[in-house]
Amino acid sequence: MQNAHLSALEAKHASLDQKISAESRRPRPDQMIIADLKRRKLKVKEEIALS
Questions:
Q1: How buried is 16 (Cβ within 10 angstroms: 0-12 exposed, 13-18 middle, 19+ buried)?
Q2: CA 42 – CA 33 distance, rounded (Å)
Q3: In this structure, are residues 16 and 44 in contact, taking their beta carbons and an 8 Å threshold?
Q4: pTM confidence score
Q5: Under 8 Å between Cβ of 17 and 38
Q6: Which domain of life is it from (predicted)?
Q7: Nearest CA to 47 among 17, 6, 11?
């Protein structure tokens, strides 16, 4: 069960990373969206570290 939770967190982290990259590549990236995604990614990373 623990491995499934960790895998889900890692997938969420990778998904957020892809969203950050996609937003950054736009002609006029929205810095508020990027900041929010980075904040969410950091929370997921912290949760991974605690697992």
A1: buried
A2: 14
A3: yes
A4: 0.90
A5: no
A6: Bacteria
A7: 6
Cβ neighbourhood burial of 3 (10 Å; 0-12, 13-18, 19+): exposed
pLDDT at position 2, please?
83
DSSP 30: -
Alpha carbon separation from 13 to 24, 26, 27, 28 (Å, rounded): 17, 21, 24, 24
Neighbours of 2 (CB within 10 A): 7
* Cβ–Cβ < 8 Å for 9, 47: yes
Per-residue pLDDT tens over the stretch 1-51: 689 999 999 999 999 999 999 999 999 999 999 999 999 999 999 999 998
